[in-house]
Specification:
It contains 2 helices and 2 strands. The protein has about 80 residues and is mainly alpha-helical. The longest helix has 10 residues, at about 40-50. The protein is globular, with a radius of gyration of 12 Å. It binds zinc ion (ZN).
């Protein structure tokens, strides 16, 4: 009954000027990046969060993304090393 929690991706870090990549959720091109630099539409990330309130994030291309939810945090290049 609760509304989908909206992410705050206003930071320019969430926008990859390098070009579009296929969204990991719907497969359509998107310039948006999650906090793990995963290509995903903001609406798709919000929808995933809404549909998986307690589930861990699935792996992507065999890599553990190291998080359970999409976050509003801007992408961090160094996060990958310290998340273990
Ligand atoms: Zn999408």
């Amino acid at each position: 009954m609760t509304a989908v929690a909206l992410l705050n991706w206003r930071s320019s870090d969430h926008f990859d000027h390098g070009g579009d990549c296929p969204c990991t959720q719907c497969g359509q091109p998107t310039p948006m990046r999650s906090h793990t630099s995963e290509p995903v539409h903001k609406v798709c990330a919000e929808d995933w969060n809404d549909r998986n309130p307690n589930a861990p994030r699935h792996q992507h291309d065999g890599h553990d993304l190291g998080t359970t939810r999409f976050h509003s945090d801007p992408p961090s290049k160094s996060r990958k090393d310290g998340a273990r």
